[in-house]
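Students often ask why inverse folding is considered easier than folding. One informal answer: many sequences map to the same fold, so there is more than one right answer. In these notes we will look at a single instance of the problem. The structure comes first.
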């Protein structure tokens, strides 16, 4: 890593895949990840200087939040969470997840096992009183209607992975332009995560740089960074978190990095 991270740095997007003998995967699912434990993740955080993290419940566990709950219980001060609320999720489950540190619910339109985006309005109404946000794993270029529907609920909208649109055409898409407009208005947030998911370059992801620049110009106060560790459903070569951190230093100045890593996630996830 080229430089040290500022104190209080937050990784706003990671997953954990524990031993399936203890936490079985759901069926059906879009992929089967190798074991990537909380202990493995914390070792990376210690090495890089990441002191706060946001655990995102992954699609391969479906409705079963057992591993999600176990991690939040074990690390109440360093972790916040993003759960997955379905149309029939019990109120008691939502309340328990909130107590454990969940601050949002995710809609995953790209992998099997996610909540149905057709239920977006109803689910938004169920989490509104808790102050939760709606997190979207969508291709904003191909699914702009989902972004618009989420924004229409009035809840904060968090969009994963630069909007997950192919870097080659994202800037020209109506959906990415909608995302920029929502950012300017302070109605959306974007995770500068998973550059390898939008890039057509398997090494330095240089073609994702214009997306990062456009998002930063739209509203630097509404951006957070995530490692997307352990980079599920990505073919080799696997990204290294240290290299992804280095991209931050290449693409942003020190003041921008402090906003993206420290101040913005503290405000979004309630670290104070």
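Output (designed amino acids):
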């Amino acid at each position: 890593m080229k430089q040290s991270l500022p104190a209080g740095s937050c990784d706003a997007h990671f997953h954990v895949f524990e031993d399936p003998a203890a936490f079985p995967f759901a069926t059906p699912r879009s992929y089967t990840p190798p074991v990537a434990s909380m202990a493995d993740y914390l070792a990376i955080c210690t090495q890089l200087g990441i002191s706060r993290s946001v655990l995102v419940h992954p699609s391969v566990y479906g409705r079963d939040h057992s591993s999600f709950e176990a991690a939040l219980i074990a690390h109440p001060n360093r972790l916040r969470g993003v759960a997955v609320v379905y149309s029939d999720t019990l109120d008691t489950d939502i309340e328990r997840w909130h107590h454990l540190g969940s601050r949002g619910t995710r809609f995953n339109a790209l992998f099997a096992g996610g909540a149905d985006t057709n239920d977006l309005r109803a689910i938004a109404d169920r989490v509104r009183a808790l102050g939760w946000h709606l997190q979207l794993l969508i291709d904003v270029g191909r699914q702009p209607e989902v972004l618009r529907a989420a924004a229409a609920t009035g809840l904060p909208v968090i969009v994963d992975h630069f909007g997950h649109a192919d870097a080659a055409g994202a800037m020209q898409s109506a959906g990415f332009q909608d995302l920029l407009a929502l950012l300017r208005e302070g109605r959306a947030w974007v995770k500068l995560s998973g550059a390898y998911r939008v890039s057509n370059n398997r090494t330095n992801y240089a073609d994702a740089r214009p997306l990062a620049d456009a998002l930063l110009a739209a509203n630097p106060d509404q951006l957070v960074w995530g490692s997307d560790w352990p980079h599920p459903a990505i073919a080799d070569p696997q990204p290294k978190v240290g290299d992804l951190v280095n991209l931050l230093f290449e693409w942003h100045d020190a003041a921008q990095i402090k906003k993206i890593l420290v101040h913005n996630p503290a405000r979004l996830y309630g670290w104070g």
